[in-house]
Amino acid sequence: MKVRILGKGVIYNESIDTLIRLGHEIVQDVAGCDVLLLANYTKILRSAVFSLPTIGTLCFHPSILPKHRGRDAVYWTVKHGDPEAGVTWFWVDEGIDTGPIAIQGSVIIDASYSPRQLYEEHLVPLGLSLLAEVLPVIKQGPFPATVQDHTKATYDPPRQKLAAK
Prior knowledge:
Layout lengths: L1 E6 L1 H13 L3 E2 L8 E5 L7 H4 L5 E6 L11 H7 L4 E8 L9 E8 L6 H26 L25
Parallel strand pairs: 1-2, 1-3, 3-4
Antiparallel strand pairs: 4-5, 5-6
């Protein structure tokens, strides 16, 4: 499968390694790819871009969608004291974190976890495992796409940055 990947950070770097390990071709052109993979990509894409891949645009989100839609999902998971956290790979649509779910998984979390610890030690490895599981399914088709239950959706605002003193 031809994959264009956009993003940053550890999930982006590790996703590249996963794609290579599984034998997928990483390409530079969105128009020439089967899947556009967004791994910690925080910009909103227009449909003119996310609809270019022949299969679709798959996005990593560090929550159990439809809960904690928005930019700072891991922070809000910890802040709200959620007993579990998770990862969703979903197909991008016109909304923000609203597209059909390709795959998701969850982990029980400890109340002592910091957002960074939860993300790096638990959610990134879970996300990579799920990515490795779903890519062969997508390649063979039909690709998984479970519509989110929008009545259970929560949106969290961007976390406020501490003002410099």
